[in-house]
Amino acid sequence: MPTSDVQKLDLCGVSMNLDMENLVDLDAFSEGSILHHVRKRYYDDKIYTYVGSILVAVNPFQRIDIYGSSVVKHYKNNVNSSEPPAPHVYALAADAYDHLCSGQGNQSVLISGESGAGKTETAKKVLNYMMEVAGNPGGGNKKSIADQIMESNPVLESFGNAKTLRNDNSSRFGKWMEVNFNSKNKISGCRIVNYLLEKSRVTQQTPMERNYHIFYMLLAGADPALRSKLHLAEPDEFEYLNKSGCTMVKSWDDEEEWGAMNAAFKTLQFTKEEVEDIYSVLAAILHLGNIEFEAPDGNEDASKVTNDSTVKSLAKVGAILKVKAGDVEASMVQKLSQMKGRSSVIAVKLTVAAAMSMRDALAKALYGRMFDWLVVRVNDTLNSASDTDSKHIGVLDIFGFEVFAHNSFEQLCINYANEKLQFHFNDFIFNEEMKMYQSEGVPCESMTFKDNAQCLSMIEATGRNPGEGVGLLKLIDEQNNLGTSGSDAKFAAAANQNHGKDSKTINPYFEKNKTNPGMFSVGHFAGAVEYDITGFVDKNADSTSESLESMARTSEIKLVQKLFERVPEAGASASGPRGTPRGGDKGRKAANKAKTIGSQFANQLASLMLSLKKTMPHFIRCVKANHEKVPHKFDGKLCLDQLKYAGLFEAIRIRKAGYSYRIPHEGFARRFAITGNQQLLKLFVHKKMKALDVCRRILETATEQGVVSRKNWEVGKTRVFLKGAQDKGEMEEFRESKCHDMATKISSVIRMFMVRKAVFKDKFEAKAREAKIRMENEKNGAAAIIAQTAFRGHFIRKRSRDLKLIVQLKIAMRGLDEDKIKEAIAAFEGRRISSMAENVLYDAKKFLSEMKERRKVLYDIKVALETEQLGDLQDLVEKAEILGMGNEQAVVDAFLMVSRIQEKRNVHKKLLDFLEDDAQNSSQITELLDAARDLGINDRFITKVEVAYKEVAPKLEVRQLLRSGVEEVNYDKIKKGLVEAQKMTETMEEEYKMGLRSKAYKDFCIVEKAAARRVMKMLMLEADLTSRTTEDLILDLKTDDDDEEQEIIIAETSSRLDTFKMQMCRNIANAETELLKLDARKELMESCGNRREFDETVRSYKWGKIFASWKYEGDNTAKAPDEDESFFGLHPADAYERSVMNQTALVVELGGGRTEEEKKQDDEREVDLRRGIKPVNKSSVSLMQTPSKKRYYGAGDKLVLPTRKGEKNIRKGKLDMGMGGTSSGRVYEMKSSSKITMGGDMEKMLQSRRRVIKKKRGLIKTLQKLTADTNQKWK
Questions:
Q1: Distance between CA 962 and CA 972 in Å, rounded?
Q2: Which of 52, 634, 707, 1175 could form a disulfide with 734 if both were Cys (CB 3.0 to 4.6 A apart)?
Q3: For 744, which DSSP code?
Q4: 1096: three-class secondary structure by DSSP
Q5: Is 118 labelled a binding residue?
Q6: Which whole number is the average pLDDT over 1065-1089?
Q7: 471 annotated as belonging to a binding site for a ligand
């Protein structure tokens, strides 16, 4: 959207973001702009805002520290300053008081707003300001008149305020206070006039509202004596208090307010008797509400007081009012009536409903007349010393415009009063506008606005003037004058006849409801309000039954007598008991004729308006921020409605009737000077022409070009006036077009200069730049030489000093001279040093601390050496090595001592272990004894070990022989070792029997013997399976089970495993990948020469791993059962069992030979492995591929079924070969005579194998020699 269009739509102007204290200074005056700034200031805790001379006060619902004596003094001293102070209720009060003091006549402060908007509190602040600046201090115990005026508020609030849905302390009456001032501008008195007290609240309240505060205060604060005298109880026990469901208010302390009210009574000089009479009337009203009626003996046309508890309430009323209870009852159940044309009076019985209405009428009459008397009584005190001709400031605290879902007669009266005040307000605003135009020199003869006079005429007209109908209030009075024949319906018909569309005196502000004849609408200044006529006639009647008044006059209480005394016609006042109006005799005569609420209220308003017209008004519009009564919450719609009801937008309408946009000369000229010619712009910029003349020239130019009409603008003395938003928008559009033209010219000139600069600048400026650069280089070069000379000299001198100190410090550090190091470090102190010197200094300090640490360590080592404390020495040696002290002699000595002590302890421990068990460390005894002698171990202990070793040495030789035989699978060694072990066992048993030994040593070499026997068993099994016969040997061997000799045919007598073969087997077992394992197998195969020897070597390596437990202890491969693809191949027992089951596969199972198909499969498998292809298991099983069986067999052909313990031992790796008796199962061994018959193919294979073995034996001796040479290398 173009800027011009935005400006046309921006009715709030350019001042939206400013903090505007007076909204009349807005360049755009509208509902939105006023609401925006009021909200903005409210959230900044600035609750007061001016709209011209009108003060808007938003209720903050919290205490704000903006009041007090210091604030009053500030506003008093700045009332006439050049810069007016911030908006405040004190500022408006100061302005009113200043006008009064300066002789500008009487003043008035008109405060309005809806319930809960803060009218009463604002009125108190106005009075508080006047008391502070114009109050006379009292003398001694006597209170000043200012104090008495302020103390009137607690009394009037107690009797005239109540809790409503909108406000916890709502004023239910209007109040006009005239504060009088003497010739010295000091307060001399005050007069209060009250308006339209809500008497219906005494007998009936809306749910969750309360009756007037005074009833609850009386019940909460009365002392026991007063409670007993007046028969008081809790609020819930009185019908006039308990119907609404609310008896307590958090923000109003009844007991505390009771004390404040009684103190105010004393300040206002009420007598004790008057106060007691007031309390008696209040108590009588409460007991009246508890009286109930019933029809006597079924007579519906009569009534009487019920016979239960209400009779007591009736008696209490009589006792409190000092009237006979029967008279009280009679006044309520019957009505005195005078026949027309006769002087006699008759008593008419009333129905139950009518009696209850009479009871409520009596209660309302008592309270209403007492409230009027209370105001008069307060006036007697406040006005006792007042001069009738004194000047005054009036404060009007009156109900604001009201619009409810259901609006009745009370709302009509309240809105009528607001219409009267709005008329006065409009007249004042219009006059103020006219004064401003006159002061600015702006013609205003044609300015007019439409007021609300026609609406007022519809309400209050008498119908005597031609062309106007009878007013609504007059029409209601006519219905009251008709007596029982008058009705609400007749009033509605009369209203429509006088003001409706079909009447001759039609009024545009009146509208009849087309669907409900009992409803009509009035177009008030704040908006249309629809009224329900139900009860209008009854509510307008203010007459009290003669029977009630006659009964009340018989009371012995003076206050009650005074309330119902007959007032002579000549002495009647316009306001009745409310106060003395200033209307003179004419007003008094009108008051005497007033019989209804409406006519009385109209007379009061007429008197009030007469008083207001004689004063200079100051307006305060109170606004309720939200219904919840919480701080910092601004309900925009609610506040907008209240601003409308307050008539602020009527001020906007009046302003828009003239020139709505007012802009200061300076601001208008600064913004729109561009629309004139270039000369005018220069004159304004250089201040050679006044802003007023510039503005006039601008507008004349705009008029000549048809932008704005001449009748739509004026130039005043300080401001420019535009008629409306359209004119301002046209000026903005005109300015935008001028800006566009100017921008085009400027851009063309700029582009021209840019081209010129691009063409000529480099040519003419290049030489200048070169000359300048040359000069700068010469200057910089000379300056650089000078600076470098100075810097280098300084740097060298400084560095030479630092280097000298650094050299001294390093020499001291190299010499390890602590004192010189300290002196060198001290030389650096107190002077600036280079970063290099800082690093050296840091190293020196660190070196110094290390020297101290080294000295301490050396000292501790010497002490530990003397005391031979091994633990301390170990820690100190480690610390010394960390500090780099390994070459120190003391450290070396300590290290040697620690090593020697540790070695000595280790040797001693091993020898002790040998003495406890000769199997431990037996192979190292010789070396341990030599070390013990070198280390200085006790000779007796060494001798003891030597004796033990000599005794054990033969056994050790036998054990070593057995071990080597088992490890190498050497038949000769095993045989020899078993024979020697048997002989030694027999010898030791004989010595034991002869008493030469303390024990028999039956368990001598039990592990080695068992392993040797099992290896022999395996050899026997292997020989038995292969049926070897060449160069057979026979070994007589006794088993653990029996002494039967068995023939074992053994083919080979040399060692199957030497160091070289064992290493190659380990390479196969430890290969990490399949390829590595394949390469290791090929290497072993080449060393063996054929497959049979390879398989025998593998089986022998496995036997060694299984049976040589002393060598492979802790090796998992020696303990774990065989698994698929393991190196070890089939367990010998499994091989035997399989051979029995399938004799044709015997040679294959024992690795005796391979078919061509198997060789082909092995070659293919190797090729696949070389290529990285994972091999697939074949159906045939070789020694390298063990089937996953979980069964184990004995040496015979029968299956051994192990027990649970046996299975557990198998899982732990304790393999039962059926030879050692470790299994609990029965084992059937195959006898050696059992031969296996082989076929012709098998015999040919065995003969071929034997020929190979003969060739191999020739190589064994050569290999043994080579093995002896390489044993050390492989270890």
A1: 10
A2: 707
A3: H
A4: helix
A5: yes
A6: 84
A7: no
Distances (CA, A) of 983 to 879, 979, 1219: 59, 6, 22
Give dist(CA 1267, CA 1052) in Å, integer.
18
Alpha helices by DSSP H, listed for 720-761, are 725-756
CA of 828: how far to CAs of 798, 806, 824, in Å?
12, 9, 7
In whole angstroms, what is the distance from residue 792 CA to residue 380 CA? 105
Q: Quick one: tokens of 1066?
A: 């380990």
37 exposure class (CB count in 10 Å sphere: 0-12, 13-18, 19+): buried
Q: What are 171's strand-pairing partners?
A: 161
Tokens encoding 1206: 């046996």
Angstrom distance (rounded) from CA 199 to CA 370: 11
Q: Are 1125 and 1185 in contact (CB under 8 A)?
A: yes
Average pLDDT over residues 20-34: 76
Dist CA 21 CA 44 (whole Å): 12
113 among annotated binding-site residues: yes
Per DSSP, the three-state class of 109 is strand
Read out DSSP for 1156-1208? HHHHHHHHHHHHHHHHTPPP---SS--TTS---------SSSSPP---HHHHH
Residue 117 marked ligand-binding: yes
Give the three-state DSSP class for 56. strand
Q: Hey, which residues does 531 pair with through a beta bridge?
A: 407, 520
Nearest Cα neighbor of 942 from 924, 930, 956 is 930
Q: What is the reported pLDDT for 912?
A: 82
Q: Which residue has the tokens 């400084």?
A: 798
In the numeric block, which tokens belong to residue 1073?
A: 């990948």
Q: Is 189 annotated as a binding residue?
A: no
Q: Determine the Cα–Cα distance for residues 90 and 75; give it in Å rounded to an integer.
A: 6
335 and 298 in contact (C-beta within 8 Å)?
no
What's the confidence (pLDDT) of residue 999? Answer: 58
In which band, very low, low, confident or very high, does the pLDDT at 933 lie, cut at 50, 70 and 90?
A: confident
Phi, psi angles (nearest 5°) of residue 55: -100, 120
Residue type, 996: L
Element (H, E) at 392: strand 391-397
What b-and-e string marks burial along 972-984, b requiring 16 or more CB atoms within 10 Å of the CB? bbbbebbebbeeb
Which of 970, 972, 1005, 1002 has the alpha carbon at shortest distance from 988? 1002
Q: Strand 391-397 vs strand 107-112: parallel, antiparallel, or unpaired?
A: parallel
Torsions phi, psi for 193 (to 5 deg): -125, 130
Residue 1034: pLDDT over 60: no
Mean pLDDT of the chain: 76
Cβ-based burial of 644 (10 A; exposed 0-12, middle 13-18, buried ≥19): middle
Is pLDDT at 29 greater than 50 in this prediction?
A: yes
Residues 6+ apart with CB under 8 A from 1150: 1022, 1025, 1026, 1095, 1135, 1139, 1183
Summarised one tens digit per residue, pLDDT across range 268-321 is 999 999 999 999 999 999 999 999 988 888 788 888 888 776 788 889 999 999
Residue 292 in marked binding region: no
Q: Is 463 annotated as a binding residue?
A: no
Q: Print burial letters for 1043-1072: b (CB count within 10 Å at least 16), e (below 16).
A: eeebebbbbbebbbbbbbbbebbbbbbebe
Does 1104 count as an annotated binding residue? no
Geometric angle at alpha carbon 476, from 571 and 194, rounded to 5°: 45
> Which of the 8 DSSP states describes residue 810?
H
Using DSSP's 3-state secondary structure scheme, residue 345 falls into strand
Q: How buried is residue 595: exposed, middle or buried, by Cβ count under 10 Å (0-12/13-18/19+)?
A: middle
Distance of CA 303 to CAs 284, 291, 365, 548, 836, Å? Answer: 21, 12, 22, 16, 121
